[in-house]
Amino acid sequence: CMREAYAHEKNLGFTRQAPDLGPIVIVGGAGQMGQLFGRMLRLSGYDVRQLDRDDWSRAEELLDGAGMVLVSVPISDTVEVLHQLPPLPHDCLLVDLTSTKVAPMAAMLEIHPGPVLGLHPMFGPDVDNLAKQVVAYVPGRIPDASTWLLEQIRLWGARLHEISAEDHDHAMGLIQAQRHFATFADGLHLVREDRSIDELLSLSSPIYRLELIMIGRLFGQDPELYADIIMASPDNLALIERYHDRFAEALEILRAGDREAFIARFREIGEWFGAHADRFRAESQSLLAHADAQR
Ligand code: NAD
User: Fold this and answer.
1) What angle do CA 55, 57, 63 make, to 5 degrees?
2) Lateral strand order in the sheet of 93-96
């Protein structure tokens, strides 16, 4: 219940960090992330308004005196929606939640001469609260004007990580786009080989079971979300093409039957992982023990 939640959150001390801020307008406020941030901002005492698809005729009125505009529309619509915005009050803070940062940051800086901040929450809309979640942020313009917002997010329990838009998109390309694409290709491969999943599972040790789970879980989700994540930027395609080249490079070692080369590459990669390789092995062992106990 909302009232109980409010009382509870108030006890947690979601003190409003910008007492004099004008209304906050969430563009795409009816969506999943828009609702989550709307709820958190209301719980912290802000006046929150929503500007969704059917509200454009009232845009000027909704944006009148806005202290902050938060854009939370689908990735592929973000730049277009930003250009659709009427001029904002000059001291209004313009923020977005888009999972990519280079294109939205450029568009925000282009359409608004005032303060700009990019955010990327590293979690989905289904979290109960923000405790221990990570939010990446990209300073845009007049960083002092967004200090209160970062402090507010910290009060919600999240950990903030500052990064440039370019570094963010490259890291996300590796963590999300290319990983998900590789999983997509794994799925395609399994479909084409068409061996029974039950049979594969019955022949799998816990680690292979977990690997199969990690592939299969993708296909229980929304294909449009993954299409958007993977195809979010031309840089992702370039990254995936480099991945494809390295796959070919690795395959060439096999074709040549060059066992020495395989071992040499293996050692080179192991050195790059360094101490992490041992740590990851220990961590995966405890994960596996846990996963096995859960079954
Ligand atoms: P969503 O589809 O649930 O919500 C998008 C909202 O935008 C909808 O209410 C839709 O009606 C509205 N919208 C679409 N076009 C519009 C327009 N022209 N004008 C006004 N409103 C419009 O999407 P979501 O999952 O909430 O994602 C929103 C943003 O959050 C995206 O940029 C996404 O990258 C980012 N994000 C999402 C997640 C996630 O897991 N869902 C995680 C991190 C970041």
Assistant:
1) 70
2) 48-51, 24-27, 68-71, 93-96, 116-121, 134-141, 159-162
Among 73, 119, 127, 229, the mutation site with the greatest number of ligand 1 atoms within 8 A of its Cβ is 73
Q: Tokens representing 108?
A: 């925000």
Query: Which residue has the CA at smallest separation from atom 32 of ligand 1?
Result: 98
CA atoms of 215 and 208, how far apart (whole Å): 11
C-beta of 27 in contact with ligand 1 (< 6 A): yes
Going from the C-alpha of 73 to that of each of 126, 209, 215, the distances in angstroms are: 17, 37, 28
pLDDT above 80 (res 7): no
Distances (CA, A) of 67 to 97, 128, 135: 17, 27, 21
Residue among 243, 242, 189 at smallest CA distance from 211: 189
In short, whether 72's Cβ falls inside 6 Å of ligand 1 is yes
CA 248, distance to chain mean position in Å, is 29
Nearest protein Cα to ligand 1, atom 12: 28
Contact between 178 and 240 (Cβ < 8 Å): yes
User: Residue 234 contacts by C-beta under 8 Å, 6 or more apart in sequence?
Assistant: none
Q: How many CB atoms lie within 10 A of CB 173?
A: 25
- 137-189 pLDDT per residue, tens: 999 999 999 999 999 999 999 999 999 999 999 999 999 999 999 999 999 99
Which amino acid makes up residue 76? S
Q: Is 176 in the pocket of ligand 1 (CB under 6 A)?
A: no
Q: Name the maximum alpha-carbon separation found in the chain.
A: 70
**Residue closest to 290 by CA, chosen among 206, 203, 211:** 206
As a whole number of angstroms, the distance between CA 68 and CA 79 comes to 18
Question: How remote is the C-alpha of 257 from its chain's centroid?
Answer: 41
